[in-house]
Every structure is written in C-alpha cells, then in structure tokens.
Amino acid sequence: MSIALFLIAGLFLPLYPLSILPNALLQGRLGGTTRLVSERRRGPVLKSALVMLFPVMGIGLVALGSTILADGDSMVLTVFGVWGGLTSVLYAFRLLSAKDGEIWISHLFSSAVALIWVGIPYGVNPILPAIGLSVSLIPLVFMLDQLTGRFGIARSGLYPGLCSCMPLFAHLFIAAVLAAIAVPFSPSFFAVAALAFGGVGSDEVVVLLPICLSWLLWTWAGANLLTGIVWGVPRDDLFYRDLSRQGALGLGGSLIALGFFGIVLVEVAL
Amino acid sequence: MIAHLAYSLPLLGLISALAVLASAQRIGERISELSIGFSLVIFVVALGLFLRQLSVDQGHLATIGISLFTIYFDSLTALMALAVSAISLMVHLYSARYMRDDPSYVRFFVLLDAINAAIMLMVLAGDVLTLLLAWHSIGVILYFLLNHDTRREAANRYAFWTLITHRVGDLPLMAAAALLYYAYGTLSIPLIFEGIAADPHRSTVFGLPISETVGLLILLAAFAKSAQFPLHTWLPYTMDGPTPVSALMHAGIVNSGGFLINRFAPVFAHTDSVLQVALLIGLATTIMGSAMMLMQSDIKKALGYSTMGQMGYMVMECGLGAFSLAIVHLIAHGVFKATLFMDSGSPISRARRDPNIPEGEIYKFMVERKPPKPPLSWVIFAAITITVPLFIVLAAHQVVDEGFLSHQGAIVLLLFGWITGVQTLFFVYKIGGEEPFKLLGYVMLSFAAVIVIYVLAGHTIDTLLYPDPAFREALYRAASLPDPIFTVLMLVLVTLIAAGWLLVFWSTAQPEPLRRRYRDSYLSIYALMSREFYIGDLYGRLAGGMLTRSRRLNALMRWV
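Structure tokens for the assembled complex are given below, as produced in the milestone run.
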C-alpha cells in the first residue's frame, strides 16, 4: 500500500517515467483543444498553480505512505530516494538542450522537485525545500509568458540581444533565471542547502551527488538560456517593447521579496 | 563591538551599488565619484579595524540574531579586508576614467560595488552558509562583469567558462559545509573549529576522518577559484572583460583560494595527507603557468598565465604548511598584478608612438635576437650562479628564524628561492655585455633585498595570523613527509636541478646549443604548449558531446 502511495506521489514529485504526465501538463500538451482552453492551460497562472500544488500533493502522499510503512522497510525509502536523484540528474541533463520556454520550465521543475526524494530517507522535512524550489520557478514562468506575448513564442536563440533593446525586461529576466537555477538569495538556493545540510549523514554520496550534479547542470542550462535571449546582437527585423517602469518595479519587488523569503526559509529549516 | 562594526564593510558596498543605481539618471557619470567615495570610506573603516585588531589579538563573533550572516573578525579577516578594500579602491579610481563614455558605465559600477561587497562578505563570514553564499555570489557577479560587452560572442563564451568553473568549485564547498554541519551540529565557523580540535578523528564518507574529507573538499573549492590545474582554463581567457575587471580578478578574486585554505587552517592542522595534494597541484600549476606565460605575445594573456603561476605558488606554500606565507604572497601579488594590469595599456600606447628601446645589450638580445658572447668561462659563472643565491636564501632565513631548517616546508620554499635566484643570474650570463659583474652585483643586491623583505614579511604575518607556535608546528607537521623519504627526495631534486643548470650553462656555451640540435623535439614540445596541452580543446569536446547527447536523449524521450 505504501509503495502504491509513493508511486502515485511520483506523479507529483516527479519520478521518471511517471514524470511524463506532469511534464506534459506543464508544457500544455494535455487538456482540451479549443483555443480558450489551450490558452488557459498554457497561461502563467495555471502553470504557477501546478508548480506550487504538485509538490505539496506529492509530499502529502509520501507522508501518508510513510505512516503506514513498516518500521523495517527503510530500504523502500532509500530506493525511492535514489530514483528521485536519478530523475533529477536526468532532467537536469536534458535541460541543457532545451530551448523552448515551456520545455525549459517543465524540465527544471522535474529536476528540482525530484530532489525532494533525496532527503526523504534521511528525515529531511520536505515541505520547506519543496516550497523553496517551486516558488523560485514562478518569476521565470511569468517572464517566459511575457516573451510569448511579445514574440509569439518563448524560445532561446530566436531573438538574442534583448539586453540591448529591452533593458528592463532583460535585467528582470536575468534575475528570474538566477532565482530558478538556485543562485543566492533565491529560496531555491536555501532549499538546496537545506536538503544537503539536513540530508547528509547516513549516506553522503547518495545525497550529495545528485544535488551537486543537478545544481551544476542547472547553471549551465541557465547560462545557455541567457546566451540565447539576453546576450548577443539583436535582430533588426523585430519590434521590441520593453516592460513599463511600473511593471518592472512590481516584478523587481516580488523578486526581492522572494530573496527575503529564502532567508526565512533557511532560518526555519536549519 | 569590533565585529559589529565590520558589518559596515559589505553593507557599505551594497549601499554604494544601490546608490549608484538610484542616482544614475540624476548625476550621470558622476556616479563614479559616489562609488569611489564609498570605496574610500570602506578602506578607511578596514584600516581602522585592522589597527584595532592588532591590539586585540583574538577573534570576535557577531550575529544579527539569525543563524545566517554572522561575522567572524580575527587577524586573518582584518588583514584580508584591508587588502581587499585597498585593491578595490585602486580599481575604482582607475575605472572612473577608463570606463568613461562606456554605454554600460552605470551597470559596471553597480556590479563592481556588488562584487566587492560579496568578496568582503566572504572574508568576514562567520558561518559556513554565509561563506558558501558569498563564495557562490562572487562567481555569478563575475560572470556578469566579464559579459560587460553584451554583444561580443567571445566575452560571453569565456564568461561562461568562468561561471561553470567557479560553480564546479562551489560544489565541494557546499559538500564540506554540509558534512561539517552534520558532524558538529552548527553553522558557526569558530564553533566548528572547536569541535574539530576536540574530536578530529570523527569519521565520515567511506570511514575517512572528517578533517581529511573536509580538507580535500576545501582544497578542491580553492583550486577552482584560484585557477589550479586542471581547472585553470578560465583565467587566461577572460581578457575580453574591461581591464579594471581583469585587474580585480587577477589581484583579488583568484586569491580567494588562498584565503579559504587559511580560513580552514584548523581543519588542515589535523590532516595527514591532504596538504601534499595541494603541494602537487600547486607545483604543476606553477610550472604550467610560468611556461605558458613565456610563450604569449599578448601582454594581458601573458599576465593571465603569470597569475596562474603565482596562484600555483600560493597553493604550494599552503601545501608546505607555510599558510601565512601564502597570505603574504597573495597580498603582494594582488598589489603588483593590479598595477601591471592597469598599466598594461600604457606601454602598448607608448610603443606605438616610439619603441624607445635603448640600443644596448638588452636590445640586441631581445629584439635583434643576437646573444652576445658570454663574458666568462661558463664553469666559473655557473659556480657563482648556483652557489650565491643559495647562500643568500640560507642567510636571510637564518637571520630571521634560526629554527627554520627543522621544517620540511621551509626547506622546499628555500629550494624554490634558490631556483629563482639561479634563473635570474643565468639571464645575466645569457645577456653578457661589457660590464657583466656590475650587472651581476645589481641583480644579487636586488635578489637579496627581495628575499629579506619576503622572509621578514612572512615572519611578521606568521606571528600575527597564527600567534600560537604549537599551531604553526601542527600545520608544518601536517604538510610533512616521513623524514627518510623527504631527505632522499631533496637530495635527488637538488642533484637533478644542479645538474640541469650545469647542462644549460654548458649548452649555452656550445657553438650549437642543445635546443638547435634537437630542434624537432623542441618544436613538438613548443606546439604542445602553444595549444596549452589541449586541455581547453578537451573541455570543449566534452561539453559539445554532452550537448549532443542531451539533444538526442530529449528527442528519444519526446521532450517530456
């Protein structure tokens, strides 16, 4: 029974191949076919809700499964921990070649949230790292949506050099990417630290290896995304519309608030 | 009180960055004056704190009521904060004119202030998480500083190399911090050190003692930041950033490795075989960096490889147990390398107007490639060259610290001092000229002055940073090899080096030097070195291969 619950949890705290479903949902590949439904399922609000809700649901299922797990069955949790670690590294590796914004977010979500499994066998309270990792993706979800609104598609390499022609947008986009790939002071940085600091102990290699590998690959993928969108020479044949000052202030303010949230998170977690 | 006041050092940097950003539209290019003003205040505060620390002679811990952002202020912190603020002030002053008319003037100063705040936070960090946070932030801010010219592909490519190498260095530091937190249940650096001193043999990964594991991880983190072989490729290539950034990077950021190793000296004092790794890697980096430097025609790239060599030497000093000497080295190197970088444009500009090379022995040797006839018999000159520097380094050490010969590390450093002196005198022999002994006298005098100052400064800083003689002994002991092995190794090395020098002298005196006789082998080695042992190419291939496999995997899994 507990294994069945863990497997269902693998749909929400992604475990490959169960992760295919949440990935497809985040990429807007599932659901109705009418234009309205299609736009809604691809919209940032629904995506943000999924990004926030999935880990919480997964953690609830894991908690339920753990309560009915027999005392001697800690091996089951270890197996799921290793599976989660492998899933995280797999998606981080695949993230390297992702150029489409929707694929990028879904792969990073799967890679980041799968790391929660790594701490579970070692008694790390999963709720704070889960919130930290998922909330850090939300600014990027909105920024990618802004790109889709302006250029029809959020895709790296199609319209480089935004730093030169949309400076406000570019600076906030950089901040959103940095928050997503767990750079200080984003909550995901502190979530990664909480996972590593709290989970290390019984088996350092199982805990630290996937965390370190995934973190490194996220950085690489994040730099690739910036190279294809922010840096470079802008195209002459496109119309560029920067963010309004008010919009930029709002987004910037929420990113700063996110930083403070990260500090609170690590204070509670450690 | 003193530690609480130290909070102002990173905070002022941060406030400066925000003030520059906020007032850019109103005061335009005068933001540089604002930024310089803050840098000057930071320098004055750092100087005041350093002088205060001299009289206090113990560390202080300060917190703001949370476990993060604690500050540990001790002699090492005071000295490093002073050095960082001085270099930062120099770079700020230089940048004000150098960066004028640059369209990204504001962004440059914001990032410059931000990176100085991050470096200051790293130096002051009193807990491992703040240290990790600052260590990590430095790499990220540096990425943006190096990407200053946002349209230039090369700048972007090498900024990425820098970022990814720094990230590789962040990971072992995170692992070390996590292991220490688990083992001692605290983030506080001084408390961790107390825990290690009380129980240094607690085991961790694969049953290894925690001091060994953490020591190795700290070294790996330091290697990446300080461009040690094979993580060095980012350093010489990051010349596409503005010159002030090169100056800051080569004078300040690369020194982080030396600081980190010194910060964790109480961990290394309980290790048996970790410092030897630092010695080996530092030695390899020194040799590679110095050899590569000689092959460059671009002045900034030559300076880049020179930094690599110097950083290798700094790590090697740590590997020999001479931790405080590494601090002397990094401060001295920081000051002279910053000056060299900031002056690097001037000789090019002057040479374009007028080469102005005096037509003498050096002109004939360097420009016309006509080595003059050596002034004396090579046997006599070789005897002088090999023995005099040895006498100078021995005498200088003997005057300052009589017991130095009991430390293996000091003997190895002495060996390097000897090699450096011999190399300098050999150059006098090669140049030849009409007054070789006058030149020889000048060189010997300069060499003696450098060695005496170096030894004196090293000794002073040693007692300042590590006042407990027993702790200094523990560091030297941790870096030591078993006595018989060390004795044999030294005898073999000294014999080989002396024989090598004799061969070089003999070859130079021959009508057909060895280099010409074995031209094909010489060219093969030259080609190999000019491609920098293909290490950069190897990384490029690996990265390309990974991207291709990632694409294939995604296609196979239909991107979900």
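Chain A touches chain B through 48 residues (CB under 8 Å). The CA atoms of residues 182 and 215 of chain A lie 7 Å apart. Further analysis is deferred to the final report.
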